[in-house]
Amino acid sequence: MNPVLVVVLVVLALGVGVGGTLLGLRMWGRAQLNAARHDADLVIAQAEREAEGKRRQAELDAKSELIKMRESFEGESSKTREALRDDERRIAKREDNLDSKMETLAAKEKSLDALGQKLKARETTITDKEAQADQLLSEQKSNLLRISGLGEEAAKELLLKRLEDEVRHECSTLIERLTTEAQDSAKEKSRMIVVQAIQRYAAEHTCDSTVSTVEIPSDDMKGRVIGREGRNIRAFEKATGVDVIVDDTPGVVVVSGFDPVRREVARRSLEKLIQDGRIHPARIEEVVEQTAKEVEERVIEMGKKATLDSNLRGLHPKLQHLLGRLSFRTSYGQNVLRHSLEVGYLCQVMAEELGLDGDLARRCGVLHDIGKAADHEAEGSHPEIGAELVRRYNEGKEVINAVQGHHGDVEPNSIYTPLVAAADAISAVRPGARRESLERYIKRLEKLEEVASSFEGVRQAYAIQAGREVRVIVDAQKMDDKDTFRIAREIANRVEKELTYPGEVKVTLIREVRAVDYAR
Predict the structure, then answer these.
(1) Residue 204: predicted pLDDT
(2) Are residues 417 and 458 in the same domain?
(3) Half-sphere exposure of residue 494: CA atoms within 13 angstroms, side-chain side
(4) Does some domain include residue 320?
(5) Is this prediction's pTM over 0.70?
(6) Percent above pLDDT 70 for the chain
(7) Are strands 243-245 and 211-215 parallel, antiparallel or unpaired?
């Protein structure tokens, strides 16, 4: 076979195959396109149906929401209309009330007008009566002057004298009533505060002597204390600054000194020398020097202990040292340090009862006698010395005034000063606190009777109950019952100003009339 023909046939076969393939592919593509169009139509139809359903649902929801809003609006509108109706009712009621009040005011206005007219008429009547009274008074005055035969000046003087007597009588009555009321109230309150303060503080009674005694085991030891021609006792007095009294009293040597610290040093030194047995000038100086250091340490210890016991914060070391020195000081037989601590505690208790600063009151009380620790070294009274000391060591103005004025030497400018004075008196007058010399006691009683007897109308005055009370007998012809209260107050005021005494003094006036006759 011809090769060319074969090739042609092959080419033709290939062309026919390709054409058939293309035709088949075209037909398949048309079938797929139709199927896709059908699916698309189905999807579109489904979407249209869903859209229609959603549109209808939206319309239903909108209608439902519209119905709800309409119902809500109608409810709120109903409430608003109801509130408006209530407001209208209240306004109407208020208008009715206002109308009623206006009618009442109109009636009152008419009543006031009528009352004003009556007052004007009464004022006119009163004016006429006053004129008539003035005229009658003038006529009566003229008649009185004519009948009494006194001139106008003499009548005025007589009238003023009578008015003065009446005013004095009323003044005495008022003084009596006010004094009684004030005393009852003050006594009740002060008694409660003082009793509570005393009950809450229980201090031991202490009465030390101003001299110290040292026991001597034998007369031989007493001779050794004196030494040959008295050289030992002279050396001892020179080293200690005290006086040693050796008399015929068996087994006792008396040590007497103005400075209590020196006296304590001397007492301890003498006891050590007697116990040691070696008594000569050199040994005396050695023992006295050693004992002085021991006593100084004791002073510092006592000062610190007193500061801690009384809770005095920030106290200067020098003031602590002075407090320690007070432990060896006595006043009227009373230990001054224990007295100061007691006064501080009483001040605190009374201040707290009165609503004041208890710590400050206690500080004022503890330091009130600090000047007694240095009165051997400086001139002046112990309040003045103490005030200078606390001022020097930066204490507060309340403390300075309390220290300086607790005996009334200066005017108190702080409430704590009279508190300290009261606590000082309480501590001094409690049983066993102090001892008073017979001479001072008699002078105090004589002065008390002298002050009470110095008033006009007083016949006799007697000091009783150890000077705690003065009985005054007055002349019944020179004063009446009302004047006795005034005189009692004046006597008490003068006793407060001129006398120094522990506690208080009761002034009792006695006025009596005695009628005496004889039957024959």
Answers:
(1) 42
(2) no
(3) 17
(4) no
(5) no
(6) 82
(7) unpaired
Question: Quick one: tokens of 126?
Answer: 């009163």
- Of the listed ranges 18-22, 45-49, 399-403, the one predicted with least confidence: 18-22
Over the stretch 399-434, which tens digit does the pLDDT of each residue have? 888 888 888 778 888 888 888 888 887 776 554 444
DSSP state of 52: H
In total, the chain counts a number of residues equal to: 520
Residue 291 in tokens: 């004992």
Measured CA to CA, the distance from residue 199 to residue 202 in angstroms comes to 7
- Which residues contact residue 8 at a Cβ distance below 8 angstroms, ignoring those fewer than 6 apart? none
Q: Are residues 421 and 352 in the same domain?
A: yes
CA distances 92 to 82, 395, 461, Å, are 15, 77, 88
269/211 same-domain check:
yes
Six-digit token pair at 377? Answer: 């070294």
User: Residue 440: CB partners within 8 Å, gap ≥ 6?
Assistant: none
Answer yes or no: do 194 and 174 share one domain.
yes
Do residues 392 and 466 both lie within one domain?
Answer: no
Domain membership of residue 505 as a residue range: 438-510
188 occurs within a structural domain:
yes
Q: Among 134-148, 184-198, 210-224, 467-481, name the one with the lowest average pLDDT.
A: 184-198
Residues 347 and 426 in one domain: yes
Question: Contact at 8 Å (CB) between 311 and 304?
Answer: no
Identify whether 465 is part of a domain.
yes
One domain, residues 400 and 477: no
117-141 per-residue burial string, b: 16 or more CB within 10 A, e: under 16:
eeeeeeeeeeeeeeeeeeeeeeeee
